[in-house]
Design goal:
The protein is of the alpha/beta class and about 475 residues long. The chain has 3 domains: about 5-215 and about 475-480, P-loop containing nucleotide triphosphate hydrolases (Rossmann fold, 3-Layer(aba) Sandwich), CATH 3.40.50; about 230-350, phosphoenolpyruvate carboxylase, domain 3 (Up-down Bundle); about 350-460, Rossmann fold, CATH 3.40.50.300. It is about 50% helix and about 10% strand. It is built from 20 helices and 11 strands. It has helices at about 5-10, 15, 30-45, 60-75, 95-100, 105-115, 145-155, 180-195, 205-210, 230-245, 250, 260-275, 280-300, 305-315, 325-345, 350-365, 380-390, 395, 415-430, 460-480; strands at about 20-25, 50-55, 80-85, 100-105, 130-135, 165-170, 200, 370-375, 400-405, 435, 450-455. The protein has a 7-stranded parallel β-sheet with strand order 3-4-2-5-6-1-7. It has a 4-stranded parallel β-sheet with strand order 9-10-8-11, with helices on both faces. Mean pLDDT is about 90; it is low at about 460-484. One of its GO terms (cellular component) is cytoplasm. This is DEXH (Asp-Glu-X-His) box polypeptide 58. GO terms for molecular function: ATP binding; DNA binding; double-stranded RNA binding; hydrolase activity; single-stranded RNA binding; zinc ion binding.
């Protein structure tokens, strides 16, 4: 079957076609998965007793890869099985692997099968001849990918059996959060070591790739904070009262209020309080985290959103007061509730960031057919932004139809797998034209092209540093690796 590979795709698959472990590095939209399908077909055709497994790191990617990539090209000649977390077939994984030529599943399903001793569920890495790892830059630290590859490397060092060929796919190896060039390069080298592979990128057909995947225009808007923030100041004064309620040695260790660092501090403080059975510390830390969340929401969205979150939290606590700590914390909020509510409703102090975001959305959605993604750092942030869009007359006037996409789970702001699929379907078909999402939409999803992507409130120091040395990193990588 004619895959219609572009020249740069043909270039990056050569190492894999020779049977070498490799990582295909192409930008989003460059056709990494199609290249992997081509390698898979070649492997099945040329390898004795071939058996391929494709690993993904998110459940919805199982069906996407199966239906849109592997099935159309390979189903006529090969038995393909797609297994995800919501499939009962995972309970017979070992049996299914034996009956299949190609298995597509989440990495956790393979990990579970590797450690399971029941015959119908158990598999070995040596049962496969090709292991394809999607979004392989996650093969680090305690990730499931890294656990699987740790077993692979251990078996290789012990020379145990015939191990599968490795094919990794990534749009970006990342920097690992490092701000220095040498550390960023070290991070990428570690990814290669974890995957026992070399990075392969196009060297001869870069202009073709750039034409197929044009580089988007990037614009960074730095918006000043509110000149006056009486709502935020009032929250901080209440937090200071909780600090005074705790031992002074504890409160002095906390960093600046309204930051991610402060959140990390109070999370650790709560854990310590629980471990040491110090309920005063544990409860104060829990409540301080709620106030800090309110400060973060106040900084990025509306004061009323921040107030509503706090109000809901304390409404749920009113009937569960167990001791003097609870009485103090609940009383502090109740005494200040009306003042906070009045401040939150004062339009004079609304967020200038939202005003800038509104102008951006109006520019793109007025008088033209637009499609966009608005990224927020937290699940709660996506819901606040969704409420803001749906209650904004100016945005509704230009027919913005917004939906939320967040990660799976059981919490109030989580989405089920079916809800995720339905939201993506509605966005793909045009029922929705603005997706408000956490990072779940940043990797691998088959989402239609957008003319606007806004990373709202996500311009971190790391991003600024990356802008400065990214070009150095790329040149360093090209000179440091064997590129085909």
């Amino acid at each position: 079957m004619d895959f219609g590979l572009r020249p740069y795709q043909e270039e990056v698959v050569q190492a894999a076609l020779r049977g070498e472990n490799s990582i295909i590095w192409l930008p989003t939209g460059g056709g990494k998965t199609r290249a992997a399908v081509y390698v898979t077909q070649n492997h099945l055709e040329t390898t004795a007793n071939a058996k391929v497994i494709v690993l993904v790191n998110k459940v919805h990617l199982v069906d996407q890869h199966f239906a849109k990539e592997f099935k159309p090209y390979l189903e006529r000649r090969y038995k393909i099985t797609a297994i995800s977390g919501d499939s009962n077939e995972k309970d017979f994984f070992g049996r299914l692997v034996k009956a299949s030529d190609l298995v597509i599943c989440t990495a956790q399903i393979l990990e579970n099968a590797l450690i399971n001793t029941e015959e119908e569920k158990h598999v070995e890495l040596t049962d496969f001849t090709l292991l394809v790892i999607d979004e392989c830059h996650h093969t680090q630290k305690e990730s499931v990918y890294n656990k699987i590859m740790g077993r692979y490397v251990e078996k290789k060092l012990r020379k145990e059996g015939n191990l599968p060929q490795i094919l990794g796919l990534t749009a970006s190896p990342g920097t690992g959060g490092n701000r220095k060039l040498d550390k960023a390069v070290e991070h990428v080298l570690q990814i290669c070591a974890n995957l026992d592979s070399v990075i392969v990128s196009t060297k001869n057909f870069t202009p073709v790739l750039q034409k197929v995947v044009p580089r988007p225009k990037k614009q960074y808007d730095i918006v000043e904070r509110r000149a006056l923030d009486p709502f935020g100041d009032h929250l901080k004064s209440m937090m200071s009262m909780i600090h005074e309620f705790m031992p002074s040695t504890v409160s002095r260790s906390l960093r600046e209020m309204g930051t991610q660092e402060y959140e990390a501090d109070v999370v650790e403080l709560e854990k310590a309080g629980v471990k040491e059975e110090d309920r005063l510390i544990a409860q104060c830390a829990l409540h301080l985290r709620q106030y800090n969340d309110a400060l973060l929401i106040n900084d990025t969205v509306r004061m009323v959103d921040a107030f509503r979150g706090l109000d809901e939290f304390y409404s749920s606590k009113k009937t569960k007061l167990l001791d003097g700590t609870d009485i103090f914390l609940q009383g502090l909020f109740d005494e200040n509730r009306m003042e906070l509510k009045l401040l939150a409703m004062n339009a004079c102090y609304e967020n200038p960031k939202l005003a800038r975001l509104q102008r951006t959305l109006l520019d793109e959605f007025s008088d033209k057919k637009s499609r966009g993604i608005l990224f927020s750092k937290t699940r709660r942030g996506t819901h606040c932004l969704h409420d803001w869009v749906n209650s904004n007359p100016a945005l509704l006037k230009v027919n913005i139809r917004a939906g939320i996409l967040t990660g799976g789970g059981t919490g109030a702001n989580h989405m089920t797998q079916n809800e995720q699929k339905e939201t993506i379907k509605r966005f793909r078909t045009g029922i929705l034209n603005l997706l408000i999402s956490t990072s779940v939409a940043e990797e691998g999803l088959d989402i239609p092209e957008c003319n606007l992507v806004v990373r709202y409130g996500l311009l971190t120091n790391e991003i600024l540093c990356c802008l400065i040395f990214l070009w150095k990193l790329i040149h360093s990588l090209f000179s440091g690796f064997t590129l085909y």
